[in-house]
Design a protein that fits this description.
174 residues; mainly alpha; Four Helix Bundle (Hemerythrin (Met), subunit A); two-stranded antiparallel ribbon; 7 helices; 2 strands; 2% strand; globular
Length: 174
């Protein structure tokens, strides 16, 4: 068995402390993308016991990342190019996730990549002072550093749900 080296790195072109957080964010995404690579449309669209589909969770991950970027980090209106990637609201009136159906894997991957590229672009230019500077919002104060922590936690949580759903869907085919 090949010996592995398990350690954090820093993404290039970022302030080193920021780059380590961004490496963690990218690592969570890497494992998600590996697992969903080549999944079928049926697997993307099938609702399981929790009422969600994998496609709905992927859409949710991307939308929440964009929302935290524009509202909490940048404090501005969404870029129209990014907004156009989200034709449906993320939640229904009863606060459940909107069921996203019929979006193929390439569309989901494009959405995830477009939002992530936008996030990386804006974070890349930050210095450590800006990274740790609170944004004062009506409901709370928040730093970009905390937002990235939250996005790592958020995507990891839903990644686990997706992995579990894939396992169930694949075992149903056996």
């Amino acid at each position: 068995m090949k010996r592995r080296e398990l350690r954090l790195s820093s993404l290039p072109d970022f302030e080193p402390d920021i780059g380590r957080w961004m490496w963690c964010l990218e690592d969570v995404r890497r494992t998600l993308l590996e697992k969903i690579s080549g999944i079928s449309q049926a697997h993307l669209d099938t609702r399981l016991n929790n009422g969600h589909s994998i496609g709905s969770l992927i859409y949710h991950i991307a939308l929440i990342e964009a929302d935290w970027l524009y509202v909490e980090i940048l404090g501005c209106e969404w870029d129209p190019k990014i907004l156009s990637l989200f034709p449906q609201e993320v939640r229904n009136n009863d606060d459940t996730l909107t069921h996203i159906e019929g979006h193929d894997l390439e569309e989901h991957l494009h959405r995830l990549k477009s939002v992530r590229d936008e996030l990386l672009f804006h974070i890349r230019s930050m210095d450590i002072k800006t990274w740790r500077e609170p944004r004062v919002l009506p409901q709370y104060d928040v730093t970009p550093e905390w937002v990235i922590y939250h996005l790592i936690e958020h995507e990891s949580h839903h990644r686990g749900q997706i992995f579990q759903m894939l396992s169930i869907l694949q075992s149903n085919l056996s």
